[in-house]
Design brief:
Layout: H1 2-36, H2 50-73, H3 79-100, H4 108-127
Helix pairs in contact: 1-2, 1-4, 2-3, 3-4
């Protein structure tokens, strides 16, 4: 049975990486769009200040980076589930705002993104976490590195 467990973990890891990559592309696109579009183009069914929408754009772009880079480089990979949680919160808010604006047919889009981001947070915490690089100096060891 250990082989089956390893196979499941590898499959889960591949699925999580795929979801992370797709979500990163989505949030990078939406974040940059919020940063470059003129204020008039950002108006939606519910009014928000332009500065707030730009802030959300920055959060989405940074969240997109946080979904992939820490795990890819294995430097502070704990940031990946944190970025996923943040993006899940943002997209849950987007779902609520979409429903408040009466765009019921559009609400499933941010809702699914929120579910996928939450799944990445759970998966990278419980199912297939990514370990940090070994051999890095840890606090309290006087600069010595840990053996692998």
């Amino acid at each position: 049975m250990p082989t089956e467990s390893i196979t499941r973990r590898r499959t889960a890891n591949r699925v999580l990486w795929t979801i992370q990559g797709l979500l990163a592309l989505l949030f990078l696109f939406t974040g940059i769009t919020k940063l470059v579009l003129p204020a008039a183009a950002l108006e939606g069914p519910v009014h928000f200040p332009t500065a707030f929408l730009r802030f959300i754009g920055v959060c989405e772009a940074l969240g997109a980076i946080g979904l992939v880079v820490p795990s890819l480089l294995r430097i502070l990979p704990v940031l990946t589930p944190l970025a996923a949680c943040g993006l899940a919160i943002i997209t849950t808010g987007a779902t609520v705002v979409t429903l408040m604006g009466g765009l019921f047919s559009m609400a499933p889009l941010p809702f699914v993104a929120a579910l996928l981001a939450a799944w990445v947070a759970y998966g990278r915490t419980r199912i297939a976490p990514i370990a940090a690089k070994s051999g890095r100096s840890t606090p309290g060891q006087g600069g010595r590195t840990l053996a692998a």
